[in-house]
Predict the structure of Carboxypeptidase.
Amino acid sequence: MALPTLLRFISLLLVSTASLISAVPEDALVSHLPGFNGTFPSKHYAGYVTIDKNHGKNLYYYFVESERNPEKDPLVLWLNGGPGCSSFDGFVYEHGPFNFKPGGKAGSLPELLLNPYSWSKVSSIIYLDSPAGVGLSYSANKSDYITGDLKTASDSHQFLLKWFELYPEFLGNQFYISGESYAGVYVPTLSAAVVEGIKGGINPKINFKGYMVGNGVTDTVYDGNALVPFAHGMGLISDDMFQGTNVACNGSYWNPINTSCEEKLSEIDLDLQDLNIYDILEPCYYGSASSDVVSHKSKLPSSFRRLGETDRPLPVRKRMFGRAWPLWAQVMEGHVPTWPELGSPSVPCMNDEVATLWLNNEEVRSALHAQPKSVTGPWELCTDNIDFSHDAGSMIKYHKNLTVQGYRALIFSGDHDMCVPFTGTQAWTRSLGYKITDPWRPWYVAEQVSGFTQGYDKNLTFLTVKGSGHTVPEYKPQEALAFYSRWLAGLAI
C-alpha cells in the first residue's frame, strides 16, 4: 500500500474509532448517587430508550460498565421477573455495584458501599425495567400496560436494537441475556427474538452468545409437579403425607382432577403455609409467609376469578385452591396475577424498604436520569400496573431450539427455593435428552462445596447453589459471582 493511501486509511480509521468512542450518550452518564461518597469503580449510564414514539413508550435502563475491561469483557442484560418486578431488585439486593446500608434514622436515605461481589467485576451489565409500567419504565398510552410474554420479548428486542445504536462500541462484545424467576420466560423468549433478528439480517447485528436463567419458571407440568417431591426431600412433609398425596394424585400434582387429590394438596398447603417460599431456611420479613394471600379457597381474593382468562374460544382449566404463581411455581396460559393483585401489599417475606425509599426520592431519580413520580408513579418492587398474560407456552421448546443452534445456556437453582424448586428444573433439563458430558459432581468456592453441577451436550449446564434460595446472588453473593465469572469465561464450574 502506497504511503499516502496508508495515511488516508489510518486517518479514516482514527476518525471512525473516535466517532465510536464519542457515541456514548454523555447526557446518560451518572456522575453521582445520593448515599454514595467515593469514586465509581467504572462508568455508569442510565436513562430511557423510547421504543414507540407515537405512544410515548419508554423503557428505563441502568448500565454499569465492567470494572475490569469494558472493551473486551462480556455485556450482559439482567431481567428480574414477576411479571411486574423491577430489575432494580437485582441492582439493589443481588449483584449490583453497591451494597445498600439502611440509614441511621427512619426515612433517611441508605448509605451505598461498594459491593465486592458485584457482577460488574467481570462484565458490563444492563439492568432493564421491562415491560413498560414496571419499575421506572412507563408509557403515555396506558393500553401498553396490557401485555404478555411475546409482546414483552418484542419490546425488549426493540430496546436492545436501539440501545446498541446509542452504544455501538459494545457491538463487538459477547452478549448474554440473564434473569431469574419469571425471567425464566423473559430470557428464552427474548433470546429467540434476538436470534430471529440476527437471522433476518436486522441491524445493528447483536453478538449474542447465550443466556442464563436462575430459578426460572419454565413449564406448567414440570414446575407444577416439583413442589411435593421437593417438600418431601427437604423433610417438610412426612412420608405418610407424601405417599398419600402421591397415591391420591397419581404422581401428578399440578392440576388435581379428583377430590382426594385436592384434599391431600390442601393438607400440604397448611403444613407449608408459614415458611418463606423463597428460602425455606430464612425467616419471613413481614411475619407469616404467603398463607394469608394465596392459600385455601376461603381466603381467595376476587382477582383469582381471572386466573387462566384467555382470548381463545376454548376454555382453559384454572388453577385450584389459589395455587397460582408464585406459590405453586406453575404458570398456566392466560392472565398471570401479580403479587399486589393477589392482595399482598408487597412480595411476601421480602424486605424492599431500602429500595423503595431510595428510588422514590426525587433527588435520587434526578441522579438516575429517571422521570419523577408524577410521570411514572411511585417505584414498587413488584407492581400491579400491568395486565399480563402468559402466551408463549412452555419454555422447553425455546431452550431446545436455542441450544441446538449452539447458544450456551446456564440453568441454576438455589436448592432451598420452594417457589420454583430445583426438582422441576432438574427434571426439564434432563427431559431435553442431551448426552451428559460432565457427570453430576460438586463445585467449589474457597475449597468448600458450594453446590452441584451437571453438564450436557449442546453447551447446556445445570447447577444448584447449596443453601441458597430464590434470589441466589442475594443469599450467596460470593458463590454466585464465582459460577457467573467462570461460565462467562467458558471455564468449567
Q: What stands out?
A: The longest helix spans residues 3-21.
